[in-house]
Write a structure and sequence with these properties.
Number of strands: 16
Bound molecules: zinc ion
Helix content: 10-25%
Structural class: alpha/beta
Number of helices: 5
Largest sheet: 4 strands, mixed
């Protein structure tokens, strides 16, 4: 059985070592984890999540009466904060999630990046392109999703603007031209079916309880006395999202075509372990998860489709 997130982590480290624009990336600052994404359903292939964004400005939610439009209540003031993820005692700066098994079954056909690749036999290169794409979203100064600069020093609003997709394809070429060990990227040649039949399937690092994972969260702050706020009812609903994660929150899960499977409790493993012997839980531990709605791209994260 293959540890797909461990293989991706190793591949990303090799790419960073061989592709100059990505050489600033130390994979000790990046954690790759897996989410369920069914092949037949639409949704992201992978997502880059930034954990280094500072807290947002304070804000409120307001509720209006549907008929009159009058403000009837408001939330307590809050700021949006990034969760903390600490692995082996070191804070993680970015997460890259992959949707399994959908990621394994992507191809260049009908994708926006197909025009940058000419060799029809290299359909698996769509996966390598997605890996480079997510790494390229990491900002060189680690302060969010990379922004695309115009020639005049201002930035494009779109994170895939300018030559972003073309530059990703160029970096894929630089990587392959550097003659990397085929064992480092060879797993990308397999579809989910051939990974199942040839290797006994795939597992990946996930957060527990599945399918939860670290996301920006709302933290209530105190009202300021000089704020000019309407005298209306204040809704106080504390955020119950988990905000700190460590190694103890990571588990290996097996990803099947339509579901995932966990072991009973956490599994001792290293992300360097590319091959694992799976000791699964009982069939009763299999869980079906509904397809999550696609979230719009935000500054804290960006997705590849
Ligand atoms: Zn993207």
């Amino acid at each position: 059985m293959l540890n797909y997130t461990a293989l991706l982590t190793r591949l990303m480290g090799d790419i960073a070592a061989r592709v100059p624009p990505l050489s600033f990336i130390d994979m000790a600052d990046v954690l790759v984890f897996a989410r369920l994404g069914r092949t037949w359903a639409s949704g992201p292939l992978a997502t880059c999540h930034c954990l280094t964004l500072p807290p947002s400005e304070r804000g409120y939610y307001f509720w209006r009466d549907r008929a009159s439009g009058a403000i009837t209540r408001r939330s307590a003031p809050f700021v949006m904060k990034s969760p903390e993820v600490t692995i082996a005692g070191r804070p993680v700066k970015y997460l890259i999630s992959v949707a399994l098994p959908r990621f394994c079954d992507q191809s260049l056909a009908h994708s926006r990046k197909a025009r940058f690749y000419r060799r029809a036999e290299d359909l698996w290169i769509a996966k390598l392109d997605t890996v480079v794409h997510e790494l390229y979203h990491i900002a060189p100064n680690w302060d969010g999703i990379r922004r695309i600069e115009r020639g005049d020093g201002t930035f494009l609003a779109e994170y895939h603007g300018g030559r972003f997709l073309e530059e990703v394809a160029e970096m894929v070429g630089v990587y392959l031209d550097s003659k990397p060990d085929p064992l480092t990227y060879g797993f990308l040649r397999h579809t989910f079916d051939t990974l199942e039949t040839g290797f006994g399937g795939i597992v990946g690092t996930s957060f527990r309880p599945f399918p939860c994972y670290p996301q920006r969260y709302r933290e209530t702050v105190h009202d300021l006395e000089d704020e000019d706020l309407p005298d209306i009812k204040v809704e106080r609903s504390p955020c119950c999202r988990k905000v700190r994660f460590t190694d103890r929150d990571l588990v290996l899960r097996r990803f099947l075509s339509d579901t995932t499977q966990s072991a009973n409790g956490p599994v001792a493993f290293s992300t360097d372990d590319a091959f694992v012997t799976w000791v699964s839980g009982s069939p009763a531990l299999q869980e079906a998860h509904p397809q999550r709605a696609d979230a719009p791209a935000r500054r804290a994260e960006d997705v590849a489709r």
